[in-house]
Every structure is written in C-alpha cells, then in structure tokens.
Amino acid sequence: MKPIITSIFLGIALVGQTAIAEENGAGLYKSKTCVACHGAEGKKGLLPTYPKLNGQSKEYLVAQMKDIKSGARSNGQTAAMKGIMHLVSEDDMTSIATWLSSLQ
C-alpha cells in the first residue's frame, strides 16, 4: 500500500511543479521581454521571419535559447536576443519553455 500512496504523492508533486513552471514561465516571458518580439503567447512574431514559439517542444525551445546565449546559434535573427539572454538563467529558460510548450 505504501508504494501506491508514494506514487500518488509523487504524481501530485510533479503536476504541481509543472503548473508552477508554467505560471512562472508566463511571467518570465513577459518580464524578460520575449513578448515584445514574439507576441503575447508566442503565436505571432513582430516580423514574419520571427519564429512561432507557441506549442514547440520544451526541449527544442531550451536548446535554442542556450545556443543563442552561448553564441552557438548566431545569425541575423538572433542578434536582438543575444543582448537579452544574459538576463535569462537556465531555470528561467526551462520555465519559459515549459509554459510555451503547453500552449496550443
């Protein structure tokens, strides 16, 4: 019986953590100024060449942010983000990506 109860509590904790990450992600998305170029929910960028972020996989979004921050991804579209990414920690990236990936 104990393993079942432990599993239930673990499941509840994981769902709660995801909900917190999504909530924090929405706030971070705004406070880190992502909203300025990618739109309110990442659906429509300021320019047609800016990517749609809404609904992308969390892993993809985190990888792109890390690559832009490190300079591994460096093209014309990343120049503006490069100047902002020093304000975004890896935890912030994960929270933002979790939130964006949950949107449809």
Overall description:
- With 104 residues, the chain is an all-alpha fold.
- Helices cover 62% and strands 0% of the residues.
- The protein is built from 5 helices and no strands.
- It has helices at residues 2-31, 34-38, 58-70, 79-82, 90-102.
- Helix 1 (2-31) crosses helix 5 and helix 3 packs antiparallel against helix 5 (90-102).
- The model is unreliable at 6-18 (pLDDT under 50).
Low-confidence stretches: 6-18
Rounded mean pLDDT is 83
Radius of gyration, in angstroms, nearest whole number = 16 Å
Q: DSSP strand (E) fraction?
A: under 5%
Helix and strand element order: HHHHH
State the separation between the terminal residues, measured CA to CA: 38 Å
User: Helicity range of the residues?
Assistant: 55-70%
Backbone shape: globular
Q: Major sheet, described briefly?
A: none
Q: Give me the count of strands.
A: 0
- Please report the number of helical segments: 5
Q: Based on helices, strands and strand pairing, what is the structural class?
A: mainly alpha
